[in-house]
Design brief:
The complex is a heterodimer of chains A (500) and B (54).
Chain A (H helix, E strand, L loop, with lengths): L2 H21 L5 H6 L6 H12 L2 H14 L4 H28 L5 H8 L4 H35 L3 H50 L4 H9 L15 H6 L3 H4 L4 H4 L8 H32 L9 H9 L1 H40 L5 H25 L4 H25 L5 H25 L7 H19 L4 H10 L18
Chain B lengths: L1 H7 L7 H26 L13
């Protein structure tokens, strides 16, 4: 067995073991859904970063960076602003809301704020969640299977099957607790692979003289340091601004804040996440460029990072680099699976099909939801309708258009009502899909990015329907609660979430 | 070390738009450190209304 195979297998098996071990600590639905709500700042930071950094960055973005150079920063700068809004604003607000209401998942957050039509808001957001997450899940499965087929010499289809079984398996068993434990391990591996790859790759490609490698990179193309390139025109660069709206409302990140011990824990993780994010994201550009130097003519379905790792990073670091990609994809897979699967099963099964289910049955229903979403992700991975980068972009565009307005307006405008939230979600999602389809069919760039059209429609829907059907007194009260610090001693008895 | 910074953030080679982007990026990181200082170290309130409507 080669070192690469051993390290890659170890990451897969340890992740599975973390999920299996966590299953022994799960006593109730709170443990399964929000890891008991007692995570310290370092585990919160680990799980936030690991679940945010996906194969989209390692394989998709490094390929884009290899082709287009530093212009890919046009997606990283809005992402960093999105991190700030996500942690310093959304995270704090969500945590305060969870002290007053029973909040286990993303649908619960919206239902708590828009309580006049909580069942409709909850069901709609949960169903949309499963739909918008499927492309990103497919992208992670594609990345994992691509690497596994290289390492184990299996066919792509068999690799997809094995990977889906493993990831779904450990997510099913360990729930959010297992996901957070495995995220810690995965972040360590992916960080090591990313950060060490740049200096060692430069040294290897320059035959011991990293300055020479840097000069070779600079000579690849005259547009490497420009904000637009022939393959990254102005409308693509400007369109990346949608990340600013997508990152703060991604349900798999927002629900992470429910696992935090308290508000202070969230704020401690803020600078750590921003600094680590800066290092992780910025390292993808030199890695992509090193990959291009390694393989100037990249074949279809090949990736610059994998080429660099297998040819120039040596046995151990190459193995860690590949395992890092796997770790990034694994953590995103498991977190997306658990967030979309549990929401889907809770809203459909608990509220509509089996309203009298016991705690034990509820746990199993959540697991069935995870399994169902995993199966759909498997089908996408087998057929590969889009490349990894664009699958992630489509998912993120839909997330921004569907959830940004209801969530942010819910925390900033007391007048935002349930009718407005429902209209915002439906109009945002449909408009994004319609514009995406038209742009794909006509090879056009209407609205620069489909997410902008969706966001505009969503905001209009929220404004019109909130004026037509104003918010209730309970909804305004929920808004007020978000703007008060939730002190344990002042929290009303009886309204306290059972997991706190 | 300086070489490493140059590979990650090649300031002298970037065009004006990317330089502005980098300044924004670093400012956002600085803002996160300021929020940490203000809330965790000095214990000042964060995202709170002085008066609450009843």
């Amino acid at each position: 067995m080669s070192i690469t195979t051993a390290v890659f297998s170890a990451v897969l098996l340890l992740s599975f073991a973390a999920g299996a071990a966590a299953s022994f600590f799960i006593r109730n639905v709170s443990d399964y859904y929000v890891a008991g709500g007692r995570m310290p700042w370092y585990l919160l930071t680990g799980t936030f970063l690991a679940s945010n950094v996906s194969a989209g960055l390692f394989l998709g973005a490094t390929n884009m960076a290899g082709t287009n150079g530093y212009s890919i920063w046009s997606s990283y700068v809005p992402t960093s602003i999105g991190f700030l809004i996500a942690i310093a604003f959304v995270g704090v607000m969500v945590r305060r809301l969870s002290r007053h209401y029973e909040v286990y998942d993303f649908a619960d957050i919206l239902a708590a704020r828009y309580s006049s039509h909580s069942v409709q808001v909850r069901t709609l957001s949960a169903v949309l969640l499963a739909v918008v997450y499927i492309p990103i899940l497919g992208a992670q499965f594609i990345a994992l299977a691509s690497i596994a087929s290289v390492i184990f010499g299996l066919s792509y289809q068999v690799s997809v099957g094995v990977i889906v079984l493993l990831v779904v398996g450990y997510t099913l068993l360990g729930g959010m607790l297992g996901v957070i434990w495995s995220d810690g391990l995965q972040l360590l591996v992916l960080f090591l692979g990313l950060v060490l790859a740049v200096p060692i790759g430069m040294n290897a490609l320059g035959n011991g003289d990293s300055a020479k490698a840097w000069e070779d990179i600079s000579a690849i193309s005259s547009t490497l340091f420009d904000w637009t390139t022939p393959h990254w025109p102005w409308y693509v660069a400007v369109g990346q601004l949608f990340w600013l709206f997508a990152v703060p409302v991604q349900p798999h990140l927002v629900t992470r804040f429910l696992t935090a011990r308290d508000e202070k824990t969230i704020l401690i993780s803020l600078p750590v996440c921003l600094v680590a994010g800066l290092v992780i994201y910025s390292s993808s550009v030199p890695i992509g460029l090193l990959g291009r130097l390694t393989s100037p003519e990249l074949g279809t379905g090949d990736y610059y990072y994998i080429e660099l790792a297998t040819q120039h990073l040596g046995a151990w670091l190459g193995a860690f680099a590949l395992a890092g990609i796997a770790a990034a994809a694994l953590s995103t897979c498991s977190t997306v699976l658990i967030v979309s699967g549990q929401s889907f099963s809770r809203e459909l099964c608990e509220h509509w099909l089996f309203p009298n289910a016991s705690q034990r049955q509820t746990l199993w229903l959540a697991r069935v939801g995870v399994l169902l979403v995993g199966i759909v992700g498997f089908v996408i991975a087998v057929y590969q309708p889009l490349g990894i980068f664009w699958l992630v972009v489509l998912s993120a565009s839909l997330l921004a258009a569907v959830y940004f307005v209801p969530l942010i307006a819910g925390f900033t405008f007391p007048g935002a009502s349930a009718a407005g939230a429902i209209a915002a979600m439906v109009l945002g999602g449909l408009t994004t899909l319609a514009v995406f389809s038209v742009n794909e069919l006509l090879d056009a760039h209407y609205f620069i990015s489909e997410a902008f059209a969706g966001l505009a429609a969503s905001a209009l829907g929220m404004w019109y329907f909130s004026r037509r059907f104003p918010s209730s007194a309970e909804e305004r009260d929920a808004y007020e609660k978000c703007w008060k610090r939730a002190e344990p001693s002042t929290a009303p008895q009886g309204h306290e979430s059972p997991h706190r | 070390m300086l070489e490493l910074v140059e590979w990650y953030f090649p300031w002298s080679r970037l065009d004006m738009v990317l330089r502005i982007g980098l300044v924004i990026w670093v400012t956002v990181v600085a803002a996160s450190c300021w929020i940490y200082w203000r809330t965790v170290i000095t214990g000042k309130p964060w995202l709170m209304r002085r008066r609450h409507k009843r």
